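We treat protein structure as text, and this decision shapes the records that our systems exchange. Such a record has a labelled line for the sequence and another for the backbone structure tokens. The record that follows is passed on verbatim for readers who wish to inspect the format:
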Amino acid sequence: MKNLVSILVLVFAITFTTQAQQKRGGNRDKGSSLTPEQHATLAVKKMTLALDLSQKQQNEIKPLLTAKMAERKAAMEQKKANRADKKRPTADEKYAMQNKRLDDKIYMKNKMKDILNKEQFEKFEKMQKGRNKMAMNKMKGKKGSKNNKGSQRGSRTQQGK
């Protein structure tokens, strides 16, 4: 009877962990069904609420964001294709991608500086810094979870000795 109960508990535990892992992986494609224009429209509306943009400013920002979203979508498709083919970028390709990304950031910052007034631009910069911090924390969390498991195992074995 004890063996039967322990086997049932083990089966339930395995079932729940596999379902939790499947649910966690399902959110990755959350926004991919939207077109770049739809993404840009939503982003402009969010910026309008946060920065109190005029109609003229909205009309100037929307094409910038639409182009940015289209580039991002194309890059994601390229990444997916490379991942499917198990291709890794070379050091020169990584350098070129990072260089292009930074050039795009500089271009976008300069354009936003031209479109927004001083107060709006300062608020925009704060928003960007907040987004960057959140992204960095998210990346640290992903990396840290793998590293923490190993360090916990190591500490347990050292405590057991």
Summary: Confidence is low (pLDDT under 50) at residues 148-158. Residues 1 and 93 are 61 Å apart (CA to CA).
